[in-house]
Specification:
By secondary structure, this protein is α+β, with helices and mostly antiparallel strands. Helix content is about 45%, strand content about 15%. It has a domain of about 90 residues: 2-Layer Sandwich (Double Stranded RNA Binding Domain). It has a three-stranded antiparallel sheet with strand order 1-2-3, covered by helices on one side.
Length: about 130
């Protein structure tokens, strides 16, 4: 992942924020909408792009766009920083290759202990029977 190339490919848009805030909300466009196009990116290899599209399938639109919003702060600049940081963290988490699971083997001692316990239980049950005359 080439961060400099990636940041150059991002597009930002300032929108009026919703919710409480008085007249400031009606005047100032502080909400930031980040848009990233997966079909036009050159910051990822083919493998990385495939992994991202599988992991982020529920967040990517039908036009192959990833859209993130931020309206946490009253400052447009801070919202832009927050949404960019969130975007980079999202991509880093999605690019992590999970380790291949190695199935654990049952130790020989555990198998032997189980067989001994079964034989002991069988012996107890055999001792409960009536003796043959």
């Amino acid at each position: 992942m080439e961060t400099n190339k990636l940041l150059a490919e991002l597009s930002y848009k300032a929108v009026r924020s919703s919710g409480a805030g008085g007249q400031n909300v009606n005047k100032v466009s502080s909400k930031v909408v980040l848009t990233f196009d997966f079909s036009k990116t050159e910051a990822f290899s083919e493998e990385e792009l495939e992994r991202l599209q599988v992991k982020l399938a529920n967040r990517i639109s039908s036009e192959n766009l990833l859209i993130l919003n931020c309206d946490e702060d009253r400052s447009q600049r801070k919202n832009k920083e927050i949404v960019t940081k969130r975007f980079l963290e999202l991509l880093q988490k999605a690019l992590i290759v999970p380790k291949k699971r190695k199935p654990t083997r049952i130790p020989r001692s555990v198998i032997e202990k189980r067989i001994k316990a079964k034989k002991a239980t069988g012996q107890i049950k055999q001792n409960r029977r009536k003796p043959e005359l």
